[in-house]
Amino acid sequence: MTAARYDCDVLVIGGGIVGLATAHALRAARPGLAVTVLEKEAGEARHQTGRNSGVIHSGVYYRPGSMKARFAVRGAAEMGKFCAEHGIPHAVPGKMIVATDRSELPRLHELAQRARRNKVPVRELGPAQIAEREPEVRGVAALHVMTTGTCDFAAVARQLAELATVRLGTEVTAVDRRPGVGVAVRTADGHVLRARALVNCAGLYSDRIAELAGDRPGLRIVPFRGEYYRLAPGREYLVRGLVYPVPDPAFPFLGVHLTRGLDGEVHIGPNAVLALAREGYDWRTVRPGELAGTLAWPGMWRLAARHWRAGALELRRSWSKRAFTAAVRRLLPAVTEDDLLPAPSGVRAQAVLPDGTLADDFRIVEGPHTVHVLNAPSPAATASLPIGREVASRVLRTLGP
Questions:
Q1: What is the pLDDT of residues 222-232, one digit of tens each?
Q2: Keyword annotations for this protein (predicted)?
Q3: Phi first, then psi: what are they for 141, rounded to 5°?
Q4: 385 part of a folded domain
Q5: Is the separation of the CB atoms in 285 and 277 below 8 Å?
Q6: Is 310 domain-assigned?
Q7: Which residue, among 66, 118, 20, has the nearest Cα to 388 in the 3D structure?
Q8: 191 pLDDT band (50/70/90 cuts)?
Q9: What is the pLDDT of residues 253-311, one digit of tens each?
Q10: Do the Cβ atoms of 121 and 147 come closer than 8 Å?
């Protein structure tokens, strides 16, 4: 492989919002750089980017100083500006994090302290103020997070794609890395593409791509499906904005929340259950090889042993609409089973470490001629523009002047 035979300077695998933001950042930082995004689906944003609550997170939850905290705060402001500049509908309604029981008050207070350390403006509310903002929601106390917004992340991804070179329907099946030269990837249709550097933003398959490149990620992507319902027509009035429970600090999941979208529909969810395939959006979708790979990972069993009670509750809410409704009624007492209609699910690409720990921050790993984004679940969509710049800066260091 010689310089004359490069098809482009940088190949980006993955046409979700992080991969597209990375391509955008590379072109912005070095105009004229040839960047190509490879996406295996027929369109952009078909997985995590296009299957979430559409919430622009403010950065209230994340460990101060972490990439999640820094990039979410920065990314929320930048995402609103990007949407405004490109005519993408968005809003900043704020949200409430509601304690439904006095036992949750210490955790709510800790969240308030964390928000202030992350420079996220919050206001503490009592029951009367909760009822003023959300008449049907019940709680003993709440945090009002003023900078939380909503947008269509898939529309953002499509706009980013217009600013990049994207090859759709192009699945990478092999990676050949040659030290001091660059990388070559083979696609499912037999084509070979050569570049000076490779960026792996493959989401649910990011660990697999890292392994194809000869890098050892030291983790396994475990797919957790998040199942949603939506409020039946005529019942949307029960929720005016965005309402979240106080999260369990042992998990990176935020719990079943209530989200009024820009279209006025109210989505309720998600839960978090192990998917039986990396793109397993329902219980019927099973890929035995992928499931075997998940179950063979030692960290999966250590995770299950540590959190089996919480996992059992999530499974029960998945299989029983009555149990799911009961969980929602803690926040929204007026809701009934008949009010909840099925809505599309999403799958979260969660990195699990060998000791069974859930990676709690974004994870970006470099190798010769490669940069791998190995853990980018929520709030990655919110933080995608800063993540893209961070990845781009690492790639440019690899490329040199």
A1: 999 999 999 99
A2: FAD, Flavoprotein, Oxidoreductase
A3: -165, 165
A4: yes
A5: yes
A6: no
A7: 20
A8: very high
A9: 778 999 999 999 999 999 999 999 999 999 999 999 999 999 999 999 999 999 999 89
A10: yes
- Spatial distance between the Cα atoms of 388 and 199, rounded to a whole number of angstroms: 11
State mean pLDDT over 116-131. Answer: 97
Residue 123 in tokens: 């206001």
Residues 47-54 have a mean pLDDT of 95
Side chain identity, residue 107: R
Quick one: pLDDT at residue 252? 60
**What radius of gyration, in Å, describes the C-alpha atoms of the chain?**
21
* Cα–Cα distance list, 370 to 112, 351, 398 (Å): 39, 19, 8
Closest by alpha carbon to 57, among 396, 401, 393, 384? 384
pLDDT above 80 for 250: no
Q: Residue 55 sits in a domain of what CATH number? A: 3.50.50.60
E strand or H helix at 86: none
Q: How many CA atoms lie within 13 A of 350 on its CB side?
A: 26
Residues recorded for the chain: 401
Report yes or no on 347 lying in a domain. no
Q: What tokens does 196 get?
A: 């000076």
Domain containing residue 194: 1-91+150-218+361-401
Tokens of 98: 């509601």
**Residue 245: closest CA among 231, 258, 235, 236:** 258
Token pair for residue 332?
Answer: 């929204």
> 3-state DSSP call for residue 118?
coil
Count of H helices and E strands in the chain? Answer: 10, 20
How would you classify the pairing of strands 220-231 and 172-178? unpaired
Residue 136 lies in a domain: no
Q: Pairing between strand 266-269 and 220-231?
A: antiparallel
d(CA 293, CA 289): 6
Task: Identify the CA nearest to 23 among candidates 3, 15, 43, 206.
Answer: 15
Burial annotation 309-326 (CB, 10 A radius, 16+ → b, else e): eeeeebebbbeeeeebbe
pLDDT band per the 50, 70, 90 thresholds, residue 350: very high
Confidence check: pLDDT of 155 > 70: yes
23, exposed or middle or buried, with CB in 10 Å at 0-12, 13-18, 19+?
buried
How far apart are alpha carbons 120 and 169 in whole angstroms?
A: 40
Q: How many domains does the chain have?
A: 1
Task: Name every residue whose Cβ is closer than 8 Å to that of residue 319 and which is 6 or more positions away in sequence.
Answer: none
